[in-house]
UniProtKB/TrEMBL annotation:
It comes from the Eukaryota. Pfam families: Aminotran_1_2. Homodimer. Its cofactor is pyridoxal 5'-phosphate. It comes from Acer negundo. GO terms for cellular component: peroxisome. This is Aminotransferase class I/classII large domain-containing protein.
Amino acid sequence: MAPKALDYDSLNENVKKVQYAVRGELYLRASELQKEGKKIIFTNVGNPHALGQRPLTFPRQVVALCQAPFLLDDPNVGLMFPADAIAKAKHYLSLTSGGLGAYSDSRGIPGVRKEVAEFIERRDGYPSDPELIFLTDGASKGVMQILNCVIRGEGDGILVPVPQYPLYSATISLFGGSLVPYYLEETANWGLDIQDLRQSVVQARSRGITVRAMVIINPGNPTGQCLSEANLREILRFCYQEKLVLLGDEVYQQNIYQDQRPFVSSKKVLMEMGLPFSKEVQLVSFHTVSKGYWGECGQRGGYFEMTNIPPESVDEIYKIASVSLSPNVPAQIFMGLMVNPPKPGDISYEQYIRESKGILESLRRRARLMTDGFNSCRNVVCNFTEGAMYSFPQIRLPPKAIEAAKKAGKVPDVFYCLRLLEATGISTVPGSGFGQKEGVFHLRTTILPAEEDMPGIMNSFKKFNDEFMEQYEDHRGYSRM
C-alpha cells in the first residue's frame, strides 16, 4: 500500500535531518524526571522569566492597556497606571489599524519601525531607513526568512561559527543547504582567526560548495565572548573580498559583563570603514526582546535591518513575509518599548532604570560566580562569560569515562550531562549539540538561575563532578585541546 504524505517514510527528508540540541535528548529526559516529581533546574535555554526573572513593570503596564483598551476609558485608570504608561498605550494604539487584534503591515507597524530606525541611529551614529527594517516573531523567524532567501540548494554553503547556536544548523538543514563550519579558538577566549575562515572557504569550494553567507553571533552563544572592533573589521573586509552577505546575530547586545570589550554593532563598524565597504558589503542584523534585561522570550518580538540589499531583493523578502500576513502585534509594541523606553523626567523612568540595572548587575555577578565555580572544579576549564547568557566550560573527560560512554552508546559529553542531570537535576546542553573540536568536550548552561540559588547550584555541580572524576580517573590523562 502506498504511504500517506505524513507517514514517516514519506516525510520531507530535510525535516528528518534537523537536529536541535537545546530541546534534545537531555531536555526530554529532564521533562520526564520533572513529571516523576524530581526538582529540575532548566539551564538549557536562555529563558530568563522561567528561572524567576521578574518582567519590567513599565512595558507590561503599556501592553496591558493596549490589550484591554477599555481600561483607558475607566475614570479610575490613573489610580492603577502611571500617566506616562497611559500616554504610551494611546500612542501605540493610534499606530495600529484596529488595536492588537488587527493584522499589521507584513513588515510590522510603520511607526514602530521608525522607532527602531531611530534607536539604531542613536546607537551607531549613522542613518537607518525604516523601510529596510522588518519586525519579526523573535529574531529566529527573521534568521529563517533570510536563510530561506539565500539558500538555493545543497550546493550553497553558509559559514557558521563552531560552537554555534543550533538555530543555524537546523535551519540550514531544513532549507537543504550546507553548513560550512569555522572554528572559534577556545584558548584565545573564543576569538576568530581570519586564516581559519579562509581555510574553511577553500575546503568548501574544493567540495563544490558555493559559500554565500557568513553568520556571526556577537556576543557569542554558547561561548559568551564579545567580538572586538578589529575582529569585526577583518570579518567585514573578508565578506567584501568573498562577496558574502554577513548575518549579524546581535540579540545579546545589552548583555555585557565586562568593560574592556563593549558591544559594537557590525553596522557601525561597516559605516566607519567607509568606501568601498560601506556601500558594497551586504549586511542583515538581528535583534530581539527575548534577551537583554527584558527576557520577554514568550512574547516573540524581533527585527532585522538590511544594509546594501538591492530594492528588488527587499521586495522579494517582503513578499515572503506577506505569506504570514503579519508579525505578532503585541510583540511589536514590546519592541517599540524596548527601543524607546522611558526617558529622564518621565514618571516611570527611575523605576525602569532601577529594575533594568538591577537585572544587569545581578547577571554580571552571576557570570563571575559561575565562571569561578567551574574553574574551581577538577578537570573543568571555563573562559569568563564576557556577554550573552551562557557559560561553556570544557570538561576534560578521563579515558575511562569516554569508554563508558561508548559502551552506553552515548557521545561522551551527552553521557556526562545525563549523569549530571540524574544526580543533581541540573539540565544542561552537551557541547556536541553546538559543535566542537574532535576529542574536546563541553557543556552549555545559562547564567540565569536566581542569584541566591547560584552558590547551591555550583556546589551541587562541584560535588557531582568530583565524584564523577573520582569514579573514572585512572591518572592516565584526559581529553584536551
